[in-house]
Amino acid sequence: MSSPDSDIQDLTPISASPTDVAPLGHPYPKPLHERTAAEEVGGMDWAAIEADPGFAALLRSKASFVVPATAFFMIYYFLLPIGVGWFPKLMETPVWGVLNVAYLFALSQFLMAWILAFLYIGVAAGWDRDAARLIAKFRTR
Amino acid sequence: MILTATPAPVSHTALWMFLGFVFATLLITYFSARKSSGASAYFAAGRRITGWQNGLAVAGDYMSAASFLGITGMIAFNGYDGFMYSVGFLVAYLTVLFIVAEPLRNAGKYTMADLLAYRLSPRPVRAAASLSTLTVSLLYMIAQMVGAGTLVRQLLPGVTFEVAVVGVGILMVVYVVFGGMLATTWVQIVKAVLLMSGSIFLSILVLKRFDFDLGKFFSSLTTITSTGVDGGKVVRNFLTPGLLFKNPWDQLSLGMALIFGTAGLPHILIRFYTVPDARTARTSVVWAMVIIGFFYIMTTFFGFGAASILGPDYLKGHGGTNMAAPELARTLGGEVFFAFISAVAFATILAVVAGLTISASTSFAHDFFTNVIRHGKDHLPGEEVRVARVTAIVVGALAIGLAILIGPAVNVAFLVGLAFAVAASANLPVIVLSIFWKRFTTAGAVAGLLVGLLSSILLIAVGPDFMKDPLFPLKNPAIISIPMGFLGAIIGSLFARERTAEALYPELVVRANTGLGAERATEH
């Protein structure tokens, strides 16, 4: 990449510039928004962040939600085809008027998916804050 | 569109609504084309799509004609078993939400392969990932195009299958070539809004028939009369499972294909690059889940409603499975509503094929051309976008040709199942392992992608859809091919260690979990 040159103005319109596929075609530095991930934080010490106890805590916190939640929804979902396929008599039992176990269980899957999704949004907001703190810590060093 | 036979007044209303949608989407394309240039604008809509917009667009990309017409028809003819599809289609988004969306947005640029190529050797991994992306997109696209051909023929008497396929093909190419991701996204949003309003209105009309009494509605489903194979009357309870699926293993395998496949569908995955950051990617999945969930719950009303109000025998005489939703609309809301629902179905197909076209062309241009052929460097300004545009035309032509070659007579439902199976068995294992397994290697990724891809195609080829005396008993291969994809990837990795990949793992983990250094939105 060429060095920054203050004499050359970046004439690229802000929303419309093909520079991120053509770094060699431009004699002037890329505008900020066009930098690729690698150019953005070239000197970052990734191993140091990974070794940071705060990062390990973040990963642990994520795992402590995602692993049980994934296991739960997989089991809950696959109980439906398993129940319908191998225990049809049980699934046909009427529960509420004409509605049987099979239909109500299928309907409950929608509720289950929505509840887990909204729980996730709530928990993940905390992870965003932790990640922002980590980034701030390593940026200022 | 060319009308050869003398059209009934019905098709005029439908035709005008079709044309209205086409005009609106072309207008979107025109404005998008004026606004966007540059690779990030073309491939990722400048990463400036908001959470709710992307949620609607994900829903638009996902709710295909197979969902709207196919599931309605399946419930109308076989009751409860059709509803099982609806459940799987929604729950699958939890896999997307928990495992795939955020790491992908944080560590990638335009395609699924970006995540894989991060710490592995880029050329072989991208070549294999591009192959599986193109396969999934093309399979799914052909299924949609054949569906579009048969549907338009039924909705607009006088338009032939070929004319319909060519028309849909040209439109999808126009959206993608001129409007890029921005136009495609807005086509999805418009379609999702149309589909939801049509579905809500249809559901209300169904409930009105039963005086908004859910008890009465569900009671009517316990005695659905139809003509059996022997010609006698059969009375069935449509809330009972097992009227359609006889083999429980088939059910389980299909469920696995849905749950693991959705998170590997390339046209869904690239949607997460259109938002500014991982947090928005997350909210957009939840928006999509709310919309998709409501839609699939409503299939209860129009699917069961069609069974109860019209009955399977009436539907058989009026276009069969695929026409259950439009016919229900005609009976309940008259010709204008029939025309509206038909136009919605048409919009649904167009939007989905446009999403597939852009995912195929992005993968070819970014993964195969730029990174495999050109080694990721030394390219001319704008070359990647130009290649993507040419690819979109080629892919469009290919899909038109294959759809016409296959013709309307062949049942293409297995193609959709195959697309999900390939996505689940080839794409998902390598995505998961590259995020969570430090020892994962290039050889493992290539092996996983190829084993998953080939085993699903092979098992379908020797399955009941192709052979009279099938070697493999199940319609959907996922229950075997997903473990095979994982095994291929794991065994391939265990052969030899790859130090560079292990050395880059901390960087990938930090990026994926914090969003540090992720691609940014363009500023305006």
Overall shape of chain B: globular
Could you list the spans of chain A in which at least 5 consecutive residues all have pLDDT below 50?
Answer: 1-24
Radius of gyration of chain B: 23 Å
State the order of secondary-structure elements of chain A, H for helix, E for strand: HHHHEEH
The N- and C-terminal alpha carbons of chain A lie at a distance of 26 Å
Overall mean confidence score, pLDDT of chain A: 76
Domain tally of chain A: 2
Q: How many domain regions of chain B?
A: 1
Oligomeric state of the chains present here: heterodimer
Strand content of chain A: under 5%
- The number of distinct β-strands of chain A equals 2
Terminal CA distance of chain B: 39 Å
Please work out how many helical segments of chain B DSSP would assign. Answer: 19
Strand order of the largest sheet of chain A: 1-2
The CATH homologous superfamily of chain B: Sodium/glucose cotransporter
Give the uncertain stretches of chain B in residue-range form: 1-9
Outline the secondary-structure elements.
The complex is a heterodimer of chains A (141) and B (524).
Chain A: H1 37-40, H2 46-51, H3 53-86, H4 88-91, E1 94-96, E2 99-100, H5 101-140
Antiparallel strand pairs in A: 1-2
Chain B: H1 9-35, H2 39-44, H3 51-62, H4 65-78, H5 80-107, H6 112-117, H7 122-155, H8 161-209, H9 214-220, E1 224-227, E2 233-236, H10 248-261, H11 266-269, H12 278-310, H13 312-316, H14 324-373, H15 383-406, H16 413-436, H17 442-461, H18 478-495, H19 499-514
